[in-house]
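FIELD: query
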Amino acid sequence: MSGGDLFPLASAESSDFDYRESTGSTNADLVAEAAQKGDFAVIASLGQTAGRGRLDRAWSAPVGEMLAASVLLRTRTASGALLPVEAWGWYPLIAGGALRAAIDDLLPDREVTLKWPNDVQIGGQKVSGLLADLVTVDGVPDAVVMGSGINLTIAAENLPTPTSTSLTLEGATGTAAEIGDRVFTAYLKNLRALVERLAASGGDTSGIRDTVVAVCDTVGRRVRVELPDGENRYGTATGLDEAGRLLVLQDDVDTEFAVAAGDVTHLRYE
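FIELD: result
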């Protein structure tokens, strides 16, 4: 069955919607084929078998119950120039905000939030994650492949982690394809609007930062940050800097540090 048959709404929102019944990774596929595809081309699958999460962790879900979809973003300013380098780090945050809004529209009675940098949660449980891969041409950044994995119809006993959920568990109705088409279509519309704002500003991220901070549930919380070297730091997340890094006021030294990469845990009882 073609992508247009399974995902008629999302197909209409993409310049090139390529549905694959099974693939290892939609991100890897789109990175490899980026040179032949245009802005807002999509590769999607309900049968991803070798997904990759943040920090290169393996990520998987039952076939047919999770939507993996990657979008090619080849954003240019009005003059046709590349965005400034400092703006590129905002793609995951923009995508997280766009997907959060799409799921919030689908489930208006649920508490849908964004956990820095780009996990979408419902009532504190993860329903979606996003991952960005850079596409370069002759060593120069050319585009970003923005991948998303959305738990659609996964039953409680089959969830990938104890802190996960799925859209059907939170009240969405329909088949995996029907739910996926609705939410991914809204995501593409939201993502396009935010990317166009970024392009129109010439890469000025100040307005985008306000939009993301407003929906980021991490800002204002006490957090534990596990850095890539294994060090744990505790503090209160105070905001995002101009590069999209999480700012944390550290408990023991009362100084602020910026997190570019690491695992952030929201602390409720510590």
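FIELD: remark
The mean pLDDT is 91.
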